[in-house]
Prior knowledge:
Elements: H1 2-38, H2 41-49, H3 51-72, H4 76-112, H5 123-142, H6 145-175, H7 180-212
Amino acid sequence: xxxxxxxxxxxxxxxxxxxxxxxxxxxxxxxxxxxxxxxxxxxxxxxxxxxxxxxxxxxxxxxxxxxxxxxxxxxxxxxxxxxxxxxxxxxxxxxxxxxxxxxxxxxxxxxxxxxxxxxxxxxxxxxxxxxxxxxxxxxxxxxxxxxxxxxxxxxxxxxxxxxxxxxxxxxxxxxxxxxxxxxxxxxxxxxxxxxxxxxxxxxxxxxxxxxxxxxxxxx
Length: 219
């Protein structure tokens, strides 16, 4: 009885830690979306220097998962939960890394000091990507596979946003051939945002697996 009780306490603790990590990562992505618009140097540095917090938490969660697997040898739904946690934990850490890449990319763009350039409007794309990430976390919290499945459709919208940015940047480079680095770095922001969307899809797939026990691979 004691062994069973301890096991479920550990699972509950693990769930809380994963949700804490998810909230931390979502905050980093929101800040990254902000600096695309504001180029706020203080926030850029904050995103970059706080990366270790996510890394440390991701390692701690993975170690807890491995310890539970070794000590309790879970089966069925509990085993699915642990597998999902290991995968989602990894996705969250990678999303945080992409947020850092966005901050560094914006910092790089600022250094070009291209005063005449018209800023590209990333707002529709950042809003959709943030919505996807938020929905994937909500789906995880509520064990809602239907909500998770809606993220697959959102991914098509984000891909279209990236394609529009690519076409726009090609025109900008043609019209402003003296600043290719500025425009290429601007396009790479769209690639980073698209990758966060892809990671949100991966999380959604794990939520479907956790709830329904079926492996889903969205393409």
